[in-house]
Structure to design on (225 residues):
């Protein structure tokens, strides 16, 4: 059973702060890692993917991967109320055939 | 027009009824997936298909069946619906371009079983 665990929410931060979302996974052979954002009542949409150890930055978003610790995180700098959503961590397993999703972390950014 | 469409968008049905949810895509992707989402449980995979002849069970396939009628169409059936199948259902597609390929989701079908 491949497990993907996300930090329990909900997470609430003020506008302009850094939001930190965390995810751990059980399959040491996992190849790539994804962060999806899902607004209430909408479908998930991809924000970032990462497959090499270290940091990957895209605008206000930074994904961090540490394969030795089986840990991936998403940092949102200068958080905006429009960032309020549920963030889903997804892991592509060692067989590359499918994604395994975490339960999601609900983020609220208050003005 | 949307690349991944799902019909119906909302459905209310009764226990014991047979129901089919349909998914169509114009992205030309080979891989298609059916997920269900329940509050607090994230996305759980029901079935997935890598081409018309390749269909695989996910972790919650009991009570469901699927049909891949064509590359662009993937249907999910509930042969005899029960209340705990009340959920939000998503279809997704992806292309095989490597280990970083993105899944694209349809708008979802909200199913209520009374």
């Amino acid at each position: 059973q491949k497990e993907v665990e996300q930090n329990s929410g909900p997470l609430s931060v003020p506008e302009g702060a850094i939001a930190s979302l965390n995810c751990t996974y059980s399959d040491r052979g996992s190849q790539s890692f994804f962060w999806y954002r899902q607004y209430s009542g909408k479908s998930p949409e991809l924000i970032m993917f990462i497959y090499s150890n270290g940091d990957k930055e895209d605008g206000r978003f930074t994904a961090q991967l540490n394969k030795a610790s089986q840990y991936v995180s998403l940092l949102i700098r200068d958080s905006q109320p429009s960032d309020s959503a549920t963030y889903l961590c997804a892991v592509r397993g060692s067989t590359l055939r499918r994604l395994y999703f975490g339960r999601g972390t609900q983020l609220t950014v208050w003005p | 027009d949307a690349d991944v469409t799902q019909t119906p968008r909302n459905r209310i049905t009764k226990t014991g009824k047979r129901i089919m949810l349909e998914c169509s895509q114009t992205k030309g992707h080979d891989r298609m997936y059916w997920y269900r989402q329940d509050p607090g449980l994230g996305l759980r995979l029901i079935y997935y298909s890598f081409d018309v002849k390749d269909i695989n069970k996910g972790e919650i396939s009991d009570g469901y069946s699927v049909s891949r009628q064509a590359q662009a169409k993937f249907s999910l059936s509930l042969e005899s619906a029960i209340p705990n199948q009340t959920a939000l259902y998503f279809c997704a597609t992806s292309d095989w371009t490597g280990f970083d390929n993105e899944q694209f989701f349809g708008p979802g079908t909200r199913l209520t079983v009374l």
